[in-house]
Amino acid sequence: MVKLKDNFLQAETIHFTGIKGVGMTALVLVSQDLGKIVEGSDVADKFVTDEILNKRKIPLTVGFSAGHIREGIDLVIYTGAHSGPLNTEVIEAKRRGIAVMSHAEALGIVMGQKSGISVCGVGGKTTTAAMIATILTEAKLYPSFAVGVGNIFNLGVPGKFDKGRYFIAEADEYVVSPGVDNRPRFLFQRPEIIVLTNIKHDHPDVYPTLTDTKRVFGGFLNKLPRDGGLVVNGDDSVALSLIPKGRRIIRYGKGVRNEMRLVRVEMEKGKQIVEMEFEKKRFQFRLTVCGEYNARNGLAAAAAGMLSGISMEEALAGLEAFTGTKRRFEKVGEVGGTIFYDDYAHHPSEIVAVLAAARLWWPQKRLIAVFQPHTFSRTKALMSEFAQSFNQANQVIITDIYASARERADVTVSGEKLAQATARFHPQVEFVPQSGLVEYLSERVGEGDILLTLGAGDIYKVHEQIFLAKR
Fold this sequence. Notes:
Blueprint: H1 4-10, E1 13-17, H2 22-33, E2 37-42, H3 50-55, E3 60-62, E4 75-78, H4 88-95, E5 99-102, H5 103-111, E6 115-120, H6 125-138, E7 144-146, E8 159-160, E9 166-170, E10 175-177, E11 181-184, E12 193-196, H7 210-221, E13 229-233, H8 237-240, E14 248-253, E15 260-268, E16 271-278, E17 281-287, H9 292-307, H10 312-321, E18 330-335, E19 338-343, H11 348-361, E20 366-371, H12 376-381, H13 383-387, E21 395-398, H14 415-422, E22 429-431, H15 437-444, E23 449-454, H16 462-470
Parallel strand pairs: 1-2, 1-4, 2-3, 4-5, 6-9, 6-12, 7-9, 12-13, 13-14, 14-15, 19-23, 20-21, 20-23, 21-22
Antiparallel strand pairs: 7-8, 10-11, 15-16, 16-17, 18-19
Helix pairs in contact: 1-5, 6-9, 6-10, 9-10, 15-16
């Protein structure tokens, strides 16, 4: 019987069903670097990955059809989106005896060719993984990486396969294909180093309680080999409660018991100066990306760099070379004196962190937060937490829920209901339907304002539309 590993490694031509997804695109680039012929299919909608897919001249067909599975394809890789293993292309491939596997399985296989560094947690995965990839690249370790983001600006790509020892990847706790394959995606990874940024209750559609979330994270952490290394947020009591015994541990955070301690963060000329302590020595570095949460991410990345064998000085030099990623506190543009930013924050804890960073950056500016809730299940389960997340914004605008393809509509929850709940904690809250959002914002933002869009859906698209409307 042919093993999944052999199916991927021996495949010459791979078709990616749902190729535009950020995780899929990173894996596509890795596969192309391995010398494989890659192609794929997806919906016609604009995605943040369009630019890199076009730049790499990767063929893409619109829509999903059995006819897309042409002769010569050796392997079909799918995601949980677009019906996952029940997608018509996957079914056709199986009918014809063509190998199929999930994105999670394929990523685990390619990581297995290297020493893996997995970054997990509910928030901070993308930036921390991108920081680690930057650190090891700057240290001339030639890492491979797959980061689920449109681009890592200083590296030029979100995915790469290179000659060095390490492979860095985000480790996603969500399931392979909800209702069909409920195995957590990160269980296919076999890392030598794990970075755990935090643990919060999320994905209530598959993990109804925090206890369920803790269970899957505990299972992943216990897979770490005895000689492996764990970097963990030492200020997160839930994360600390799951630390497996017998591994090398570096805790980071502000608490005095952390081995790597955040001492001070302050702003200076568009950058933040971060002071930290490790092994009774003080170090300082500058970050282009703002916010205490990014300073914490930087400490986690530096700790992972040290576990991979580089010096603290090399790790901090790498952090100073990091210039950010797409959709993570990304400056989109400036029109009519308004500065436009976008962030992927879609969990209450992430919104709090991003808005705190924005307020630190612009203490006197009018900060307008525009939030597009992501999934009915998350919005409903975390309604109270969301409602109390916007205190640092001067004005809050909430629009319609961005429904995931993996769930059904729930009429008991809506963006309007979230706006009503938020209004109990914030004096300036409006619900604006998606259809009227561009007109509403175009008429109300002005010189000196900071407009920050938040959400994991397609909220980032309003920027371009506002730019056109205001010209």
